[in-house]
Every structure is written in C-alpha cells, then in structure tokens.
Write a structure and sequence with these properties.
Radius of gyration: 17 Å
Largest sheet: 6 strands, parallel
Strand content: 15-25%
CATH topology of the largest domain: Rossmann fold
CATH class of the largest domain: Alpha Beta
CATH superfamily of the largest domain: Response regulator
Number of helices: 11
Distance between the termini: 35 Å
Number of domains: 2
Helix content: 40-55%
Structural class: alpha/beta
CATH architecture of the largest domain: 3-Layer(aba) Sandwich
Length: about 220
C-alpha cells in the first residue's frame, strides 16, 4: 500500500474488551505494514506498556475501567511526544471529540469503520495528517458553526500571513512536504513556520492546530 515504506508501523492496542483486542490483532495480521507490539486493557497498563515497548501509534479507546483515554493521551504528550494517538471507540459526542483532539490525538474513529479505512488512517497519521471519522467530521463542523466552541480569531490574527497560510493548510490535512509544494517553499522553511506558530499559540500537535484553526474561522 501507499503508506507502507521500509518498516512496519508499530502499534499498541488499548481496549478493555478482550474480544476487541483479539479482533484487531487478527485484522492487522492481514496487513504487513502494521505490526502489533502489545496491548493493554486499562489506562494504567497503557501508560506502563508505552514506557517499555517501542511504538509509533497508540490505538486507544476513550473509556477505560480505571480512567479516561483522554487522561492517557494528555499524560503521554510530555513523556512520549513522538507517539501518535488514534482514538478508536464506540463512544461519540461533539465535546468528546474536541477534547480528544485538544488533548493531542491525531484522530478519532468509530469502531464501525472497515479494516482498510482503519489501516489507511494509521498510515495517514504517520504521514503527518489528522484523521476523523466522516460522521465525526460532520458533527464537529456543525458544532463549531453553531457556536458551541469558542473562536480564536484574535489569536489567529497574531500570526504572520505566511504562518496563517501554513496553519490553514495543516487544517486541510496536508503534510509539511505538501505544504512546501503549495507555498513554493522548502520543507525546512515550512517546518520553521509551523514551529513558530505552534509556539505562539501554545500548541504541541498538528491535530491541535487543526482544531484551533477550525474554531477560529467558523
């Protein structure tokens, strides 16, 4: 597949249902670009396994017996900043999704999706993109348009014109290389713009930048 380059993407599965974990492990067995490195059933186990098992992506349920996946996501932002978090859950409401993205997750998917979409979503977040289930996307955009989230236009306007262009393209899901092509800049220049705007807005993840831009412009 397109996103499969050289080595498999290392994934840890966190879900309190054993059958779900077994099903996901079996599913990924049919995709050589994904390697399951381990699994956990609780928030505490998730934090522990991430500390000892190398992984690229944490596939995380939002509700766990001993806490919230949101808490796990926030905790890992500081200790494992390169780890990408993708929520895979049956639970959904507008505020939960916004909280997940604000916590630093790269995506939010519902368990109804098929195997190919899940695998492609994992590949996309490794490419620097953010992913949302189509149902989630519609509901979140509607929520923003209805004014259920506060705008950040004043903060957005503190960015330079180039930085505003970069964050707009990040919100569209483009990678740094794709942004560089669109803006006719070097990859390094785009990376510098992104680093500066993230610092100005006090953000840590691309997904947070995408949420910020959506809140500021709707």
């Amino acid at each position: 597949m397109k996103g499969f380059v050289n080595k498999p993407i290392r994934v840890i599965i966190v879900d309190d249902h054993e059958m779900v974990r077994a099903g996901l492990r079996a599913l990924f067995g049919g995709f050589p670009q994904i390697r399951v490195m381990g699994e956990a059933a609780t928030a505490a186990e998730a934090v522990e396994i991430v500390s000892i098992v190398p992984a690229d992506v944490l596939l995380l349920d939002i509700r766990l017996p001993d806490g919230s996946g949101l808490e796990v996501c926030r905790k890992l932002q500081n200790s494992h900043p390169t780890l990408k978090v993708l929520f895979l859950t049956s639970y959904f409401n507008d505020h939960m999704v916004m909280d997940a993205l604000s916590a630093g997750a790269e995506g939010y998917l519902l368990k109804e999706i098929n195997a190919e979409v899940l695998v492609r979503s994992i590949e996309e977040i490794m490419e620097g993109k953010s992913v949302l289930d189509p149902t989630v996307t519609r509901r979140v955009v509607d929520s923003i348009r209805k004014g259920e989230t506060l705008g950040n236009r004043a903060k957005l306007e503190t960015l330079s014109p180039q930085e505003q262009k970069v964050i707009a393209l990040v919100a569209e899901g483009l990678t740094n290389k794709e942004i560089a092509v669109v803006m006719k800049l070097s990859d390094k220049t785009v990376k510098n713009y992104l680093s500066k705007l993230m610092e100005k807005l006090q953000l840590k993840r691309r997904s947070q930048a995408a949420v910020f831009y959506a809140q500021a412009t709707y």
